[in-house]
Amino acid sequence: MRALVFDDQLTYRPDYPEPTLQPGEALVHVALAGICNTDIEITRGYAGFRGVLGHEFVGYVEAGPADWVGERVVGSINIGCGACASCQQGIPEHCEQRQALGIHGRDGVFADWLSIPVKNLHRVPETISDEAAVFAEPLAAAMQVLRMVHIQPNQPVVLVGAGKLGLLVAQVLRLTACDLAVVVRGERPAALLSLWGIRACSIDEISDRSAQVVVDCSGSPEGLDRALDLVRPRGTVVLKSTYSGQPSLDLNRIAVDEIAVVGSRCGSFAAALRLLESGMVDVLSLIDARYTLEDGVRAFAHASERGVLKVLLS
Amino acid sequence: MRALVFDDQLTYRPDYPEPTLQPGEALVHVALAGICNTDIEITRGYAGFRGVLGHEFVGYVEAGPADWVGERVVGSINIGCGACASCQQGIPEHCEQRQALGIHGRDGVFADWLSIPVKNLHRVPETISDEAAVFAEPLAAAMQVLRMVHIQPNQPVVLVGAGKLGLLVAQVLRLTACDLAVVVRGERPAALLSLWGIRACSIDEISDRSAQVVVDCSGSPEGLDRALDLVRPRGTVVLKSTYSGQPSLDLNRIAVDEIAVVGSRCGSFAAALRLLESGMVDVLSLIDARYTLEDGVRAFAHASERGVLKVLLS
Q: Model pTM?
């Protein structure tokens, strides 16, 4: 089958072996997949992964349990051991033995087919297009901010980093009716935020120690430093992305100002699908390009350009 | 008056000028004061403070508003500007212009008298001895952990660092009926914990990723690293002390494991006095020595010795 494989370098492979259906799993034909920053980071060495890349997808079940065959589905990316405390609490994303599609221990979705445990699947309601459904995974991740931190109506909230994930987080934060400002540099995110009625501003327009919650989607140590400047005493900084290197953090500032620094990662697909169905989040405006798998290497180059938002593969 | 002054070095001064009573303030005769790790750190250069050291005290109001004169009091250490957002929210400890007794911008309590705003004072109930009342400030700081983090009955909680503050935090955590383990090295804290019926253990007895909440009272980067090892995914690490230098923290671990790192500092004197009155916390067992101010330099040397708990001055 066709597949986009990372093995020291990113290669299109027309003849990658098809997955074999495992017990408890479904064979899914991928209709559409999305390139995420994590995929790009993996091609730069992050996570040490080798295999088929990709974890954002929508597709059709071709084989597996009878009640799933023919269904249009999206799927969560973490596959736990099923036995540990995290798995038994229903959070396989925190299983220490977990596999993650296209990230750790298991081939991903930039291919014609993938095999995935049935328990990871979610049916996609008819009213959600493929182009919207492929955002289920990053939208779930964006919504996880609300799982980890109670954001209250009218609270001053600042989002730093308006890339493809940040723009989803911005729309999710807007749902809380918090007093939201998004720090942007480029014209493109500023225009999108304006379209959505969300305040975009430069970093200098935000006063130090003014935000109850700062969400850092910048992925850069500088962005995090700035987040710490902006947050109020007893406020919260949410880490929404991973960082290259190991940036140092002024722990004394956290202690003295009684700040909470909270990590946030994968989220609920059921919640993301509900939100897509409601139409309250605009994901289609984030799509910048669509490529075939054959052109996957070019698609990655495009997706890596500064300011480019979502690039899809099919 | 007698005073213990830090000015490049720690000196006993028999003739330090007496404070003059300011409007809205009270003149307090110090009956008993306690040496805190922060005081010791200041003599090593922390906070750049120069003046009379000390912030833990109990004393008698000698002059000031008539309804306060003669009262036995303790006092909170932060003096805010009164005008900023933090002050107006009733949290002068987060005022950017704040003074702090014996720490920043204002003489402290290792002297015969101090002047302190009346709004900082709390009357001490008769049933609380001076020796117990002098712990109001560190006990309030210990209780602040419960203000910053909701610790639930039966949750697995680990405390790292069983020094004089840690042993107060341990007793406060016990009040929640959480499943508490305290990591100790010395025999002395182990004996005290045993006296109080609190489980003491070595670091090797705690499984990685097993604690819902880890409170780090170690003050060392190594202690914090270990705290991150011990906490569960989606758990909380509380920073209860400041750190020398600027230790780096693995931010990706916080993001991936969705950990919350929460700072905690000064707390409520009213709550601390309530707890001292109830007798549910044993502070007297923490007292290791008592010195006069004249012997203050020796008292500091003693308080700085490894394993020594509370040293008092009068």
A: 0.87
